[in-house]
Amino acid sequence: MDKTTNLPWVEKYRPAHLDDLISHKDIISTISRFVKEERLPHLLFYGPPGTGKTSTILAIAKQIYTPKELSSMVLELNASDDRGIGIVRGQILNFASTRTIFKSGFKLVILDEADAMTKDAQNALRRIIEKFTENTRFCIICNYLSKIIPALQSRCTRFRFGPLKTDQMIPRLRHVISQEGISVTEDGMKALVTLATGDMRRALNILQSTSMAFDEVNEENVYTCVGHPLRRDIENIVKWVLNDGFKEAYSNIVQVKMAKGLALQDILTEIHAYIHRIELPVSVRLQLLTKMADIEYRLASGASERIQLGALVAVFQNARDLIVQETL
């Protein structure tokens, strides 16, 4: 039985070579040159999740080392591993300080999600990086550059991995779709890319879960699977809160939420985007956005969804009265 059949598609289709990576061509060409000339510096990859940071360094490791050498020449530590000051002074120091007898060149230490490391651990790491540069290279990966101390940043060559563009994601998604033999409509593909917001990992996870739950991956099935409100649901909600009475609008939204399992936070995010697309007086739009920001803050603080939904309907009822006053 093929070992890859039970793998999540994120791992099954993870690029194995630098040539397979679909984005950041300028970064990859620069690093390829470093590898060819055997002048790889310490690296710092930063950017949002699912943009190819870990895939890039793993592809580099596979290019530099043979499969047999990988385990002895590469040390990979993730946020799930303990990476406090004890591990930095123990495991990482031991790995970096020992030379290999049978293999010339350098070892590679990959510290994934390094923004979760404590300041003390990062401070302990900077001396090790400096001391063992001759036989060890470090690759630090993080989502937020600001959480890495300046002393570590200055010792590494920094590369920013931005969110992937639509035209970069679609060919890769089409490749996975053809390999897996699933049925995907054009609006389904658009929904995948919209919900992923430049995160390739998220796009593949949504594609896999939707294809397992439904026979066809179309817009409605994708949104249903993720539990995200459909565009027409948002249009209906805005129509109710602007045209119907408080009680009727409130009960209609509760019914939609219950029937489709929607979270008020998601509804709020989509309404925010929708408000920018419709014609409203500037003063009304400003008030709506301010009040919705307050509701979102209260939701994030753990307030009751039912009460905040009432507040949302009330905000739009007030806005409706303001629109009437402005037109008079």
UniProtKB/TrEMBL annotation:
Q: Which GO terms describe its molecular function?
A: ATP binding; ATP hydrolysis activity; DNA binding; DNA clamp loader activity
Q: Which domain of life is it from?
A: Eukaryota
Please provide, in alphabetical order, the Gene Ontology terms of the cellular component aspect for this entry: DNA replication factor C complex; nucleus
Name the UniProt key words of this record, in alphabetical order. Answer: ATP-binding, DNA replication, Nucleotide-binding, Nucleus
What's the chief localization of this chain?
nucleus
Protein's GO biological process? DNA repair; DNA-templated DNA replication
Q: Which family does it belong to?
A: Belongs to the activator 1 small subunits family.
**What name has this protein been given in UniProt?**
Activator 1 subunit 5
The organism of origin for this protein: Pomacea canaliculata
